[in-house]
Protein 1
Amino acid sequence: MRRKIYRYPFLLRLSHWFWVIAFAALVSSGLQIFNATPYLDASDQSNPAHRVLSIGSPADGVGTTTLFGKTFTTTGWLGWVDDGMGGHAPRAFAGWITIPSYQDLADGRRWHFFFAWLALLCWLGWLVSAAIKGSLKDLILRPSDLPKLWPMQAYYLKLRKEPPPHGIYNPLQKASYNVILFVIAPLVVLSGLALSPGIDAIAHPLTSFFGGRQFARLWHFTGMILLIGFFLIHTFQIATQGIINQLNSMITGWYRLREDDGVGP
Amino acid sequence: MNRRLFVASTISSALAACSPIGTALNNNEAFHTLLGVAQPLNHKLIGTRGLAKEYREADIMRDFPLTGFDPPSNSTYMDYLANGFSSYRLIVDGAVEHRQGFSLAQLQKMSQTTQITRHDCVEGWSAVGKWSGVRLSDLLDVVKPRSDARYVVFHCMDADEQGTPYYESLDMHQAAHPQALLALRLNDAPLDAKHGAPVRLKVPTQLGYKNAKWVNHIELVGSYANIAMGKGGYWEDEGYEWYAGI
């Protein structure tokens, strides 16, 4: 049996699972909100000339998605989908993936703002406690980690027998968690705030930074796609790297060291 | 491999369960109320501060978009359209020292201000328009709100298919905002029927639904609890937030 280490402190575990719930709620209520204006423009005002993505239904029973000017038929998937009430309707995202399942912008916003606060408070709570307790230093990617990124990837690709020596988190974990926690998550929060006319009145530079309000909506959506991408890779990794140990450790905090954990702490 | 398949199917069923679970929770009154805690927080933290960005003439969207209600179809409004709003009166009453009716000509004679600001719809779209008219605070100075006035309620001439009239409200702080405007003109022309003629509210620091069209009665009140369904606005009664700054 390999050695067990106490890897995940209580607040990290708690915020992790709250994040899972908040992320699911934010994506599905966000798609509900997107449905009210199912297009994204790279401009300040709405402007068809700068349209990056639009999802529509040119005729009953037909759904189309236009991305960078190229139109695809997406009937059943996007544009003409289940309406959350047992029928079908011209609607960007389907009822099975939105909250509420039926079209309801008011309640979608209600969910979105509640879970946005929850996600933000989790992030802040985790960050502050990790900084105070000193566990943050195990996670921060350092210049000395950079030369180890490829060897770690090579190990995952089975091009290398041993992972490079590293601490609690391997260099690839550090890199991806740093990008998610300190780049993508703030991008999503700030681009979301930039959509608020009340905040825009206080801080014009924020909305301008994202290229205007519609552009901020595009950034917000893109941030969601990136987070979903991370979620898929993350769950794939968990599923293939000893699922029981991984899940158990995120519940109890105790993680059984694996071969690929290098030298370990 | 079976384990991976198991995990993949577990994840996909968990994802597929989000919407039904969420929808069921949404219909639970206690949970629905809990979700609402974000609103006072947003209102308190963001509030109505600063000024909405002012744009250049070149940014104006000439064909200003429309959503929401059709123009009123009642006979009074038809008469207004026929006589060029000469019989229209904007009644300002409630908790004021001097209740008064304003004709369109009187409103046009008051000091006019212009703003080129972006209109942000709750549905997501945005459009820049040039709005001219009377500052709401100038009008309130004429009627002199009493000390018990806490909200300014805007009653409108339009109604939904069930005949429920549109209305909106601002608190005194929002009403005193320098960009809170009773717009008489859009893009250098008198407001047309579709855009809320003859008077609409323009509050660029809040979402479109606050910007009530076809206003003919402004009432100052201590509370809006007894108006319509008591949430302070037509869309608020339908579940949207009273604070429309986010």
Protein 2
Amino acid sequence: MMPTAFKHLFIVLLLLLSVLAMLLASAAGSVTLSPEQWWQALVNPSAEHGELVWRLRLPRALAAWTVGSLLSLSGCLMQVLLRNPLADPYILGVSGGAAFAALLGMTAGIASAFVPLLALAGSLASILLVFGLARGEGPWSTTRLLLTGVVTASGWTALISLVLALGSDSSLRGMLFWLIGDLGYASTPAWALMILTLIFLLCLGLARSLNVLAMGETTARLLGEPTRRLLWVVYILASILTATAVAIAGNIGFVGLIVPHLMRLLVGSDHRVLLPSAMLFGGLFLVFSDTLARTVLAPRQLPVGVVTALLGVPLFLLLLNRARLKV
Amino acid sequence: MSRLLCDGLNLSIAGMHVVADLDLELEPGCFWGMLGANGVGKTTLLKCMAGLRPAESGQVLLDSSPVDELPRKLLARHLGMLQQHTAYVFDSSVLQTALTGRHPHLGYWQREGPNDVAQALKALAAVDLDGFAERSVTGLSGGEARRLAFAALMVQAPDVMLLDEPTNHLDLRHQLQIMGMIHELTVTANGAAIAALHDVNLAARYCSHVLMLFGQGKWCAGRTTEMLCEASLEQLYGCPVEKLHSQEGPRFYPVCRS
């Protein structure tokens, strides 16, 4: 953990790096730009490659940043909600519902522009399903929520496999890309940025309550938190974040698990620092991963989910090993 | 100063009666000790007093308002509880954890100010944790974690303190220190406290009153000097007890009769 004085500097640094990463991402890709061409295009959108930089690469970089931030913020919330540092944004089945609806749409041959809407509808259906089923009385709400969510997620997985098994070969590739997570068709996510900003501000207001909640439900109640309400608010906010990310880019794995974990190690568990750090670093991480995905095998593009997993798995195992050594 | 009142309280856990028709008033200035065998329901009763679990009948009142109807935040400003166990899933610093005691006193967007930090540091120093502020809670020993939890309660500074085995994991000196602090808070700051205890002699030394839970809902309560005797303790624990006279008053020891 870094000294308290550095933590605010760290957040500013992440913000600057995010902007820098997005600018650099606009320079890289299957069409090679010289630094001069790139700069010309950047300062003058009507220059030769202005279209490429301003209409394709920057929007995609912004989409990547937004999705990474959404997933990381959601991951932080899920971890507090379930009081488990290994929880991720997909654990409660939000992405499963989205994937099932999206894949069903693809099988039915629906235009790709409508896939995000279907995904959003699917995840909302899943959120409501889990919310409705898990809303019992008594002190077991967290365990009950976890079990309901995990079982619902398994149900979605089965349905997704069914769609994959019955779907036509021609649509299989698109489905696979969607399932792994792909920013290839991501549009300019103005609405997603708005959702991100709004929920981030709400969470920042809740940050001290989240700190207390992380110490356990009973402790939080004794310290004055109406925990039942707080838990449901956190569940709904985290789910909306996940649903938004999944609607844009499919099931990109590991960002929402690793980034909160990494940030906890670096800045500690105070959510007033953790939430902004994780959000910014998550965006940065996904811009980096997506740029790699676009350039490593250019002109072929990899699904970004493959890159995040390939970067994420070793990093995660390293962290896990380190955590075990610490205990 | 708030007072806590149990009014005709009936409480059971898993079909077992904890207390039947308990009438008890935790008045400012009183330090109650709660004695009883393992599993008799001491924790359950404390949780009920804290509004964490409902009673079958009767009610717990904080200044004439039922605790389970008060908003938790308002309740937490007047009533605090030291739980029997504290487990930390997420890492945090000792100071950060002590500062959580200020949570009910702060508003939605409010941050802890220098005053809050000063209070937390003072509480940490009072339980011999000065110099621990930036340490991680996951690296604390059992006794240190226990003292930290108590420091957080001091920072919360409630009028009514419910303590579930406050001396668990503590060495002799710190047992006396923590019990002394609770005693001090009830006497000088006019707070009210009730502590579930297994050490009869700590109760004899520090508590003004004692509540005994015998099981099957049977209980009795009164002044410590009148409550603690060989007969009541033998009935309470099902083991012979001998009374010895020390300079500080009567002390009780279990006797081994094989």
